[in-house]
Amino acid sequence: MRGILDKKDKNNKGQIDGGIVPFVVLIIALLILAPIMYKVVTSVLGKFSTAIGTQSAQAETASTFVLTKFISIWDIIIFIGFIVAVILLFVSAFMVDVHPAFIILYIIVAFLTMFFAPQAVQVLQYLWTGTDFQEAYGNMPLTVFILNNFSIIMLSLIFITGIIMYAKMKGVSGGSGGGVFAG
Questions:
Q1: In this structure, is residue 163 part of a structural domain?
Q2: How confident is the model at residue 172 (pLDDT cuts 50, 70, 90)?
Q3: What pLDDT does residue 173 have?
Q4: Inter-CA distances, 153 with 60, 141, 160, Å
Q5: Radius of gyration of the chain from Cα atoms?
């Protein structure tokens, strides 16, 4: 009984609850948000730029400059959000308490994630290539790279985090050679 109570009070800093699933949800949310924000900003600034262009050509040029800068910065922000999520996933993989049963659960969750991820990516592809957001698809190359290579990226991250957790489990439990993390 004491062991169960001690685990409850354990310090879990640096761990993402749920492993790879919150990562996938975050990336899909970013990929949904990207074309919507693009559409909102371009429609508002496009109309504004046209309206202000009737008053001053210089103001229209400045407004168009702001619009193009926003598009490139928004693409970079989405990509940085992706990189931060990957880093958090790796930190979580290093910090998680590993038990052999957890590895089996991780494999099951990874399989389910890879099973359902293509359907989510297909929906995102329809969203991005639809008539409303097709312009965003052509103007946000970093985000489109993530979208087009989502399955390969996911498989690679699942494989790498699985290796990290397996190595940590082998290192902590003693394994066949002690391991790096034995202490």
A1: yes
A2: low
A3: 58
A4: 40, 16, 11
A5: 22
Contact present, 23 and 95 (Cβ < 8 Å): no
Is residue 179 within 8 Å of residue 167, measured between CB atoms? Answer: yes
* 17 vs 3: CA distance, rounded Å: 21
The residue range of the domain holding 61 is 19-172
Tell me the C-alpha to C-alpha distance, in Å, between residue 128 and each of 6, 57, 83, 147.
48, 32, 21, 9
Rounded CA gap, 159 and 107, in Å?
10
**Interval 111-131: pLDDT, tens:** 888 888 888 888 888 888 888
3-state secondary structure of 18: coil
Residue 115 falls inside a structural domain: yes
Structural domains of the chain, count: 1
pLDDT score recorded for residue 16 = 53
Question: Is pLDDT of 183 > 50?
Answer: no
| Interhelix angle 141-148/150-173, nearest 10 degrees | 70
Do the domain assignments include residue 109?
A: yes
